[in-house]
Write a structure and sequence with these properties.
four-stranded antiparallel sheet; about 160 residues; about 45% helix; alpha+beta; 4 strands
Length: about 160
């Protein structure tokens, strides 16, 4: 009898904890578009630093095409090739401008990049112009300019 009461008590505690967690989660206000876009930039930073080509390419729209004429498929191949090299990098992005006009957003990002585990010296700096589009509940990159300078630096180092 005592073990049955204990089992019922533990079950009730688990149900209460789940209910409280669900209520907290449902009661949390949804992220603003600005917060979602900042989170996307952090995801991109972590993907680059962790050499996660899947994590980085997940942020690209299927309709990606940039001013160089590079399609999503071509860019994914470049990302995979670069990530395969395995060089450790530190990336520090800074959004310098963000304009949201549903369903699009335009942002300028200054990216400082260091090779190695620790940021030593001034690092390389790149200016990116990025256009995003809301696709469902998420934002996806539909075009980005400025990355070719970084690609040129990486290819020249090899």
């Amino acid at each position: 009898m005592r073990s049955r009461r204990a089992l019922i008590g533990v079950s009730l505690l688990i149900l209460l904890a789940l209910a409280a967690g669900t209520a907290h989660f449902l009661g949390r206000p949804p992220l603003s578009d600005q917060q979602k876009i900042y989170a996307l930039v952090v995801q991109a930073q972590k993907a680059v630093e962790n050499h996660s080509s899947a994590g980085l390419t997940r942020l690209l729209s299927r309709d990606y095409v940039d001013s160089y004429g590079t399609t999503r498929q071509q860019l994914v191949a470049m990302i995979v090739q670069w990530m395969h090299g395995g060089e450790e990098v530190v990336v520090v992005p800074e959004i310098t401008d963000l304009q949201i006009r549903e369903p699009f957003a335009d942002m300028h990002v200054q990216v400082r990049l260091w090779e190695g585990r620790e940021p030593v010296g001034p690092g390389a700096e790149y200016a990116l112009a990025v256009r995003l589009r809301r696709e469902g509940r998420t934002w996806k990159v539909i075009t980005a300019d400025g990355w070719a300078a970084a690609q040129g630096d990486v290819m020249n180092d090899e």
